[in-house]
Every structure is written in C-alpha cells, then in structure tokens.
Prior knowledge:
- By secondary structure, the protein is α+β, with helices and mostly antiparallel strands.
- It folds into 3 domains: 10-314, no CATH class; 321-433, no CATH class; 441-498, Arc Repressor Mutant, subunit A (Orthogonal Bundle).
- The chain has 16 helices and 14 strands.
- It has helices at residues 10-16, 67-79, 186-204, 244-263, 309-318, 323-334, 338-346, 350-358, 363-381, 392-403, 409-420, 426-433, 441-454, 456-463, 471-480, 487-498, and strands spanning 17-28, 83-84, 91-94, 104-107, 114-123, 126-139, 143-147, 159-163, 170-176, 216-226, 236-241, 271-276, 281-287, 297-298.
- A 9-stranded mixed β-sheet has the order 2-5-6-9-1-10-11-12-13.
- α3 runs antiparallel to α4 (244-263), α11 packs across α12 and α13 crosses α15.
- The protein starts with 9 loop residues before the first helix and ends with a helix.
Amino acid sequence: MTVAADVLEIDDALAQYDPVMGLEVHVELNTKSKMFCGCPTEFGAPPNTQTCPVCLGLPGALPVVNARGVESAIKIGLALNCEIAEWCRFARKNYFYPDMPKNFQTSQYDEPIAFNGWTEVVVDGETYRIEIERAHMEEDTGKSTHIGGATGRIHGASHSLVDYNRAGIPLIEIVTKTIEVPPAKAAAVARAYVSMLRDLLLSLDVSDVRMDQGSLRCDANVSLKPKGSSTLGTRTETKNVNSFRSVERAITYEITRQAAVLSSGGKVLQETRHWHEDTGVTTSGREKSDADDYRYFPEPDLVPVAPSREWVEELRATLPEAPSVRRARLQESWGFTDLEMRDVINGNALEPIVATVELGVPAAAAKKWWLGELARFANEQGLELDALSVGPTEVAEVQKLVDDGTLNDKLARQVFEGLLAGEGTPAEVIEKRGLALVSDDGPLLEAIDRAIAANPDVVEKVNSGKPAAAGALIGAVMKDMRGQADAAKVRQLLNDKLGI
Length: 500
Ligand code: ADP
Ligand code: MG
Ligand code: ZN
C-alpha cells in the first residue's frame, strides 16, 4: 500500500489547482467601555474584575448600545468603501460555550452595518482589488484557560478557568468576498491585506490592532479548484492566525495540504483548523457545515441602529487620507522608485523619514541615514527605529553639518555612531572624536605638497597633458588627512597648484 504524502510542494500544488481565499478579520475596538454595558475594556486586568450583570448575562439585565462602538464601525465601513446601512439590527447567535455567559453572542446577521465595499493591496508592485462583503458589529466572548493538559487545549485538561473581562468588548468582523488572484501571489496578497487593514485601522484610531494581544485576529478560509474550473471547492477555515507572517504561512500550508488530499483522490473536509506556529502546520478542529444552526433572530432587547445620513457624512469627512493613498503621494513627491519605497516600508522607516523631511532634509538623504545607518544599528540591537536615541531632529542636525561642509558622509556616519553610543550632541561628538572636515588652506596645502613629493610619476603624467591622473593625488591627500578633508576644496587647491 502506498501512503499519500501529507502535503505537496507548493509549486506542484499550484500547477494543478487554483486557490480561493476568504478572510475574516476580527478587530477589537478601543472604546473605553464595552459594547452593551459600562464595564471598562482595559487589557490585562485581574480576571473577572471588569464585569457586571449585563456582560455576565444575568437574568433581567438589559444591554444598551455603545454609540462610540457604532461610530467606529461606520468609520471602518467607510474606509473600506462600504455602503452604510440606513437601518440595521443586532441578532442573537445562539450557541452554548462556557466563555459566553448569555448562551448567545450579540452579533449581526443579515443586516450588517456596512456592506459591499472594496479595498486594494499592493504586492510586488502590482495592485490587487479585494471585495469586502460586510463589516458587522458583535461582542467578544470571555477567555477560557484549560489547565492540566500538555498543549493548553481542552483535550487532556483537568479543569478550565473562565475570565469574563473580555466578554462584551466590541468587535468588528470584516469579511471579504472570495479572493482569487494569480495563484503564486495568493498567500502574499492575504498577508498584505491583513497588514494593510492594520495600517488602516491604526490611522482611523479605532483599535490598538495588536495581533499579539488578540485585538486583531484573522481566520483564513482556503479552498482549491482544479485549474480552469469555475466551481468553488470545499473550504477550510483556519482560526486565529496571529501574525502577518503566519497568515501567509498558514495559507501556503493549507494549499499544499489540500492539494495532497485532492490529488490522491480524497475529499477536503469542511472544517475549522488550528494553526501551529511552532511546527508550521494546521490540524483539524471541528467539522463545520454551512447549515450550522445558530437560530439567529433579531435581538429584542436592543433598539435598531439607524445612523442618519448626516452623521455618516460627518464621519466620512473626518476620515484621514488612506495609508495607501498617502504612500503613493509621498513616493511621488520624494521621487522614490517602487523598490526604494518598498525598502522604506519594510524597514518601518516611513514615519521617521516623513518627520525628517519635514525638518528640511532632502528625502534621499533622510532615506540614506534611516535605512543605511540607523536601521542597521536598530537591527543589531533588536530595537524599533523609533526607540533609538537618534530621532529626526538629530538626523536633520547632522545633515545640516554635511550641507555646510563640516562633515562628509563618512564622518557623518561616525557622528551617528557617537550619537547612538550616547556621546552627547552632534557638536559634542564631533569635538570629542575630532571629526570635523578640514577645509583650511594651510593644512590642506601641506598635505598636497606631501602628496606631490611622494608621487613624482603622477605629477609627470599630469604635466604631459593627462589632467585625469590628478585623481590619484586627491586620493593620496584624502588618505593623508584620514578622510577628514573637504574633497572639493582639495581638488580646487590641487588644480591651482598644478595649473590644471
Ligand atoms: P462563516 O460563518 O463560516 O465564518 P462567513 O460568511 O463569516 O462564514 O465567512 C466565510 C468566508 O469564506 C468569506 O470570506 C467567504 O468569502 C469565504 N468563502 C466562502 N466560500 C469559500 C470557498 N469555497 N473557498 C474559499 N473561501 C470561501
Ligand atoms: Mg464568520
Ligand atoms: Zn459589563
């Protein structure tokens, strides 16, 4: 008997099948209080200290909608080019789970607050449009901790603890329509989408969007269809993938796994799956059919949400420039190529460069210092750029010293070294390390005389009509001055001396 491989190589998988994806992203809003009660939402409080009868689902407790939560939902919808419902309701999604004390989740079903939107992501210089099916409001559940098992999962646990602090925190679930892009780009497009969403949500100031703290969570639906087929295959839904990189890895893994199942004649099971960061695989969760019966019905304890068109327009007017639009504008005004811009973004240097350019530094110079010097140091130290002791102000000061001839690039680099080592202000570092460029005629002329004396053959060549040979003399002078000579000044003095 031959046993089929667990996974195919990704290239083999994509040669036979086209992947289709659908992404569900849950965003925890940064409202001060919960969605349907006044409890605080702060992260990290001792268990069950941020609860009340409403979020504990005690009999007779009545919820009230948090207006700020609705406002954030509308802003998110607008930023994703959605239509905003004129009238919509909450719905009860009924199921039993210990971390959901009401035995239903207050959510939205067939009447989401925002729907029919779109957005764009850029991967390798290509723009891909992603259709948004809906963005709806709901509440988070509590958090279960399973004790005693090896993996932290319920299997093998002796008991479980439940913390209801998170129960009732407002969530927005953003659901894409099916995404079909060139197969080789699929996983990267998914990653770019989640990363773009994070930037967008940050710019809207509606969430902390901390994937590590669970305030941004992604469920990735993936299915395969034979090349050229137009019928959708059976999807799996990989839950709670919690970093951009994991989104890409988990989708790639599912493509290779499903391809192995299908190509050996098997059927993909419609189920949820768990992503394992350490081993890089997904494992089976629970079987999930489209007919799962949550017995949705409109929430009778809450009034419908009917945002006036005036309010929606007011909110639209407050939206900041979309991050993608802003980037395109900056790239244009800085004159950077796509590749340069990608380096800037991947290096998290966009904001420092913006701030440095605002202080009058040319964009190319700002990029040179941030990406060339400071990013390397930050990397070595395991720090973010904005955590360095050198900020836009210092970069602008150093650049000014380059512009006025006090420093050249090489010396400027040493000044940055001194600044990062905490040796004081740029002036103090220059003083302590003796870094200023020499542009006084006296010492330069002495060095030129030494260079001429040491290189009679070069002088001979120049005199016999080859002025280009003088370059070697400039090199000798710079070496003599340990790189601390004003090169333009040296050239000028040397030309005068040799009569070039
Ligand atoms: P669920 O209740 O299962 O979470 P949702 O409607 O919230 O369903 O989300 C389903 C997601 O899966 C959507 O993004 C949708 O576009 C996507 N999807 C649906 N069918 C497929 C399929 N065959 N392959 C991949 N993705 C799919
Ligand atoms: Mg869903
Ligand atoms: Zn409460």
